[in-house]
Structures are given as structure tokens and as C-alpha cells.
Design goal:
The complex is a heterodimer of chains A (221) and B (261). Chain A is an all-alpha fold. Chain A has one domain (6-202). Chain A has helices at residues 6-14, 27-32, 37-60, 70-92, 94-100, 111-121, 126-156, 178-205, 217-220; strands at 158-159, 162-163. In chain A, strands 1-2 form a two-stranded antiparallel ribbon. The longest helix of chain A has 31 residues, at 126-156. Chain B is of the alpha+beta class and 261 residues long. Chain B has one domain. Helix content of chain B is 34%, strand content 21%. Chain B contains 6 helices and 9 strands. Chain B has helices at 32-76, 165-168, 170-174, 205-228, 236-242, 249-253, and strands at residues 82-89, 92-94, 108-113, 119-129, 134-142, 147-155, 179-180, 184-186, 197-199. In chain B, the strands form 2 sheets. In chain B, strands 2-1-3-4-5-6-7 form a 7-stranded antiparallel β-sheet. The termini of chain B are far apart. The chains are: A mainly alpha (221), B alpha+beta (261). Chains A and B meet through helix 4 of A and helix 1 of B.
Chain lengths: 221, 261
């Protein structure tokens, strides 16, 4: 497998391999708690904390943890960080903790987190594992924020509780209900697919006539 | 496709017996004792970290709950000067919980007094199943006048945009102010103007009925106790003969999110 640079480790999870928009991982919290921007930020931050903390420990102790019990050990580490996040949210922002309900505890079974431990942190040095986790966590948070902003604007006519429209605005309540999560994710994936296709189309148009491809930068150099 | 898959003989005891390559030839065998020890140590360390985190967070969580309850009591009793907490023990109100009872989870009511020492009413909590999950309600109740003073929902997970209007719809919440008990839910705008009518929320009938039901059921259960322990009207000194009121001290320290079910 081709070795990646640290910057690629960081950026990969944010866009090119975004956990939600590309890999379609962690959809349970993505669909359930993104009905407001505040909930999206809180869930994104909690997941970011758990992912980075777990990757730090898994990468640090990867040679100590026997292969046979690695998944159990990863889950134990992840569950510990989730419990800490749950307690901190309850102590610091009780209103948001109440809104997120059981979905904080369910971060334990977010396959995106366990996937990063198994696929990356358990095989790479601490520094690169942290960059990978930070990138994936940021990508997850960005996706949640996009969902939350879209849903709160249409479903409640506000952003972070601040009303954007006048009294005549009739909220599309469905967007803050569970079906709205599926609809919003569908729209986002549709827009992303359209953008990717358009990008590849413009790359094809840039080809020279007679089917000869544009020389790459390396060839030009 | 399945004919290409390696077939494992039913009597094979290992991958080698089955003609399959070993799981990972380069990985040394790890003893069961080491596997158990690894998970035991990891579990112990995780437990220690969680205990430390809980020790830090729990006082803050309890303080938030106490603050939420104190604010709710102030609201549903129209800003009492002092509040006294009573425990429901053995079919009567008592200033002390039953022996061995947990003060947090024990069933209790909060009696509020105004500046002149006159009793205002009781703040009572109740919890029943709503449309999605349990709904926890606190309401003020004046047993002398059989009147609900006000209501607030402390906890609910009702449907966002519909059932959660029992919390967010100010008209619905205000509809519980100074209403005669037992309450009767009526379709919004279709009431006859009765003193016991509360307009329900269109599209959230079950949630509305749940709130009304909680209040009626709690009043029905507690009314004989409250009547039997009717506070002496008059002055704070009168009240103190039975309650020795302290300024909101009892309720603040004994916030409960689940009593009165």
C-alpha cells in the first residue's frame, strides 16, 4: 500500500474519505441528532473527543494488546472515553445532554470509531494516528453540521435558535422529524455525487482532441 | 461461486487439518492468562478513570438538577418566599423520609409560602408514559381551592415539532394556570369556557392528554393527604409550627427527577 504523508492523513478523513458523506459510516447519530445545529455541534465534538482519545491509546498500546482480544480492548477504551464525554456533557451543558439522550452512549457502537482503530491506529505511530483521528473526527463534525444547519433552517426557521425568517414562515416540520434526516442525507449525497460527476466531466473535457489525455504535472516537469 | 470456496472437512480440528493456511504464521501464540490479564488490567484502569470522572461530574449534575427543580417550583407556585419539602410516607406527609429511604428518590411534595407566611400551594411532580417515553411534570396545586396554579414539563422525549409542544407551546403551558381540578382536556378552541378546561394541542393529542392525566392522577392520589395535612393559614410563625420554613433550602438540596410516579 502506498505510504501517505501526515497532511494526507489529516485531510483524507475531512473530505476525500469523509466518514458520513463518502463512507456512510456512523449514520445512526447522523440521522438521529442533527435536527438542530447545537445538537450537531455537541455530538460532533463528543465523537471527535472519543475518536482522538481512543486512537491515542490504541496506537500507544498497540504492541501490548494481544491480537486475539484487540476488539474487546478497543471497545473498552472507546466506552471509557464515551462515559467521560457523557458525564462532562451532563455536567457542563445539561440541556444539550438531555436533547442528545441515549445517542451519547451509543457513540460506543459508532462503527466509524472502531473502524479507525482497526484500520489505522493499531498499525501506525501515535502522531499519524492522531492526525488520522482528527481528520476523521473533523469530517464527521462537518457532515453533522451540514445536516444540522439544513434541517434547523428548514424545519424550524432558525440557526442555533436564532430565528431567520419572519412570523409568516411556516416551518417544514418534517425536516426536524426522523424522516427529515433521511431526506437531508439523501439531498447531501445527491449534491455531492452531482459535484463529483461534474468535476470528472470537466476533467474529461480538458483532454486533448483525438483522445489524448492532458499531460500530468510530472510529465510537464 | 461457492464451488470455488475451500471446503472444511467436518472432522477437521484445526485450519491445518482442513488444509487451510494458518491464521497468521508470524504471530506468536499468546497464553490465555495473558489475554485475561490484559483485559482485566484494561478494565480496572477504565473503571478508575470513570470513577474519577464521575467524582468530578456528579456534584455538578446534582446542582443542575437542583437548580432546575428550584426554578420549576418557583414558577409553578408563583414565586414563593419559602419552600418546605414533605415526604409521602405511610399515607401521610412527613418532614422526614421513611427510615432507610433515599431522600433523592423518595416521593415528596414541596409546600410554598408567600412573604406573609401564608401557604400558596404544593409543588407536585408526576411521571407517566407519553407518546414516546416517560413525561415528567411538576405542577402547583392549591388543595384548599382545588386549583392547579401552573404546570411545567421537567423531562420529555416527545416528538420534535409535535409532542414537544407540551414544553415549547407557551399557550398550552399557560392554559394550566389557575384551572380548577380535575382538569378536562378539550379540543383547541372548542371548549365551553369551563373553569376546568385545558385546550389540548392539535397534532399532539396523546402528549397533551398525558400531561393532563398526570396532573389528575397525582391530585387524585395525594388530595386526601394534602387535605389531612392542611397548613395553618395566617403567618409564617403559624406555618412554622408545622413546617419551620427555610428559604428554599429543602427543595434545592433534594432535586429529584423521578419521584411521584
Amino acid at each position: 500500500m502506498r505510504e501517505t504523508t501526515p497532511s494526507q492523513d489529516l485531510v483524507r478523513g475531512i473530505w476525500k474519505e469523509n466518514p458520513v458523506l463518502v463512507q456512510l459510516l456512523g449514520l445512526c447519530p447522523t440521522l438521529a441528532v442533527t435536527n438542530t445545529v447545537a445538537n450537531s455541534i455537541a455530538m460532533g465534538l463528543a465523537t471527535f473527543f472519543v475518536l482522538v482519545g481512543s486512537s491515542l491509546l490504541v496506537s500507544t498500546f498497540k504492541k501490548v494488546i494481544p491480537h486475539e482480544v484487540r476488539i474487546s480492548a478497543y471497545i473498552l477504551i472507546i466506552a471509557t472515553f464515551v462515559t467521560i464525554a457523557d458525564l462532562v456533557l451532563a455536567a457542563v451543558v445539561p440541556v444539550i445532554h438531555k436533547e442528545l439522550g441515549a445517542f451519547i452512549a451509543l457513540i460506543v457502537v459508532n462503527c466509524m470509531i472502531l473502524g479507525r482503530q482497526e484500520a489505522f491506529a493499531s498499525k501506525h505511530p501515535v502522531g499519524r494516528s492522531l492526525l488520522d483521528a482528527a481528520g476523521a473526527g473533523a469530517g464527521f463534525m462537518i457532515a453533522l453540521l451540514m445536516m444540522g444547519t439544513f434541517r434547523e433552517i428548514l424545519g424550524n426557521g432558525s440557526v442555533l435558535g436564532v430565528a431567520l425568517f419572519g412570523d409568516h414562515f411556516e416551518p417544514w416540520v418534517i425536516f426536524i422529524l426522523p424522516p427529515g434526516g433521511f431526506l437531508t442525507l439523501g439531498f447531501l449525497l445527491l449534491a455531492l455525487g452531482w459535484w463529483k460527476e461534474r468535476k470528472s466531466e470537466s476533467a474529461r473535457i480538458r483532454q486533448w482532441p483525438h483522445g489524448v489525455a492532458t499531460p500530468s504535472r510530472e510529465e510537464v516537469a | 461461486m461457492s464451488k470455488d470456496l475451500p471446503q472444511v472437512p467436518p472432522d477437521a480440528e484445526s485450519r491445518e487439518d482442513a488444509g487451510l493456511p494458518p491464521d497468521d504464521p508470524g504471530r506468536p501464540e499468546v497464553s490465555s492468562a495473558r489475554l485475561v490479564a490484559t483485559l482485566a488490567i484494561a478494565g480496572a484502569l477504565a473503571g478508575l478513570v470513570i470513577v474519577l470522572a464521575f467524582g468530578w461530574a456528579n456534584p455538578r449534575i446534582q446542582a443542575h438538577r437542583a437548580e432546575a427543580l428550584r426554578a420549576a417550583i418557583q414558577t409553578v407556585l408563583h414565586g414563593p418566599e419559602t419552600v418546605r419539602t414533605y415526604y409521602v410516607t405511610d399515607g401521610a406527609l412527613s418532614e422526614t423520609p421513611a427510615p432507610g429511604a433515599d431522600t433523592i428518590t423518595a416521593e415528596k411534595v414541596h409546600l410554598g409560602f408567600d412573604a406573609a407566611g401564608e401557604p400558596i400551594g404544593y409543588a407536585i411532580t408526576g411521571q407517566e408514559s407519553g407518546f414516546q417515553d416517560a413525561v415528567l411534570v411538576i405542577f402547583g396545586y392549591d388543595p384548599a381551592a382545588d386549583e392547579v396554579l401552573a404546570m411545567r414539563v421537567l423531562e420529555s422525549k416527545e416528538t420534535p415539532g409535535l409532542g414537544d409542544k407540551i414544553v415549547k407551546d407557551s399557550a398550552f403551558v399557560a392554559g394550566f394556570q389557575d384551572v380548577h381540578a380535575p382538569l378536562r382536556g378539550v379540543k383547541s378552541g372548542a371548549g365551553a369556557g369551563g373553569a376546568n378546561e385545558v385546550d389540548m394541542i392539535t397534532g399532539a393529542t396523546i402528549s397533551s392528554r398525558t400531561v393532563i392525566g398526570i396532573i389528575n392522577h397525582r391530585i387524585e392520589a395525594l388530595d386526601p393527604l394534602l387535605d389531612a395535612a392542611a397548613p395553618v393559614a395566617g403567618t409564617a410563625a403559624d406555618a412554622s409550627t408545622r413546617t419551620a420554613p427555610g428559604k428554599n433550602t429543602d427543595a434545592a438540596g433534594e432535586a429529584s427527577q423521578g419521584d411521584g410516579t
